[in-house]
Amino acid sequence: VRAGQSAFAEWSQAGAGDRAAVLFGAAADLRKRRHELAALEVFEAGKPWAEADADVCEAIDFCEYYGREALRLAAGGLVQSPPGERNRLTYQARGVVAVISPWNFPLAIPAGMVTAALVAGNAVCFKPAEQAPAIAYGLVLALERGGLPQGVLSFLPGRGEEVGAALVEHPGVAAIAFTGSREVGLGIVAAAAVHRPGQRQVKRVIAEMGGKNPAYVDADADLDGAVPAIVASAFGFAGQKCSALSRLIVHRAVRGELLDRLVGAAGELRVDHPRGMGTQMGPLIDADAQAKVRSYVDIGRTDGRVVLARDHLPREGFFAGPTVVVDLPTTSRLATEEVFGPVLAVFEANDVDHALALANDTPYALTAGVFSRSPSTIERLGRALRAGNIYVNRGITGAVVGRQPFGGYGLSGVGSKAGGPDYLSQFLEPRVVTENTVRQGFSPDLA
Ligand code: NAD
Questions:
Q1: I want to staple 136 with a disulfide (CB 3.0 to 4.6 A). Which of 120, 128, 253, 401 is the partner?
Q2: 242 classed as catalytic
Q3: What CA–CA distance (Å, rounded) separates 151 from 140?
């Protein structure tokens, strides 16, 4: 933090153009190393190739998008200046920002948080997830190759309860950008609220957390399109996405057919080591994740009925097969808690009202989906579903920077959407200078 504070003075005064140039340079470097970085992700995080590549591409997008956003904000804000008064609204950096990231998008998510904070003129202390520090270091190298001055960014791999907590509590940290679990996020919000000796600001916390994301399949939905979108949303990267589909709500008129097709399709997914080009589902991140997923499948067996489970999985690695559970009470832990694995709970709805009530029965509000051919149902659910990102007749994962600004509300997060026009300003303090221009004469210029 001290290193950041010393580097801050110069970096915060560099022009937005110079800072944006560092991000554009980093993007060029990431682009050059696209396959190398994706390969690292395949082995470090267990991502299948296509998804590892998508993560690298998203990191590139973040660098370029926030670079452009910084140039836009540098022009200042619009305020009124009546005759005799001049008002200027400008933005200044906050200070040292702590960035704490998860392992599931190990390059793109930290790339978004780190580059936004940096290009706004802040210094950054970056603590990556313990499970994927090497790929995170690829981001640091790209920024250095892009021309980032020494000391502006500190790379601090280590354990969350040690390094992460120390950053959160440090009186010299002005803001915290966190993406991860709800439990840790709420702990950070609480710890950041404590005023500590020497602290000169209220810490701003941007926390992007989990979801228990629903999708509704209406009686008139095109099942040919819905089934592959559901499979990809629930089982892509083995369900280890905050945006993953975990509660499927199906109109009773199509429940039987949809379940047959879904179970058939998910049962055919190729689950294997992610190095294989044909692999559709790789392993979970670690043994803890595997134990957690197994415990939720057990809950599914007790509280409901498991209609898809896979027994034949690779023996080496922390694999879990795609699992579909039906007949769960809505109060089951499997129906209410984030599993972060390939377990899909399916519910039946009598009509759109019933589906909406089921979908919104959660404090989370991250992603949601609708499969329907009825414009009025689409319109209605687009308004009434409790989610930050709602997808219609497509999968509910895979937000693209600048196209689907991403993030939730409720207990899914606090802060503005990543990859959207409101994100960067969270790392800035707006200031207004008001000058009385009805002058009383000029003083001589002593300089
Ligand atoms: P996690 O909360 O376990 O860890 C996230 C980060 O917090 C890690 O770097 C970890 O070391 C750190 N950490 C842990 N304890 C800490 C503490 N006491 N103080 C400070 N830092 C601490 O989450 P994870 O397992 O890495 O990621 C999975 C979670 O992230 C899921 O809940 C998922 O939904 C969520 N997620 C959300 C989004 C989003 O955009 N909303 C995106 C990706 C992941």
A1: 128
A2: yes
A3: 12
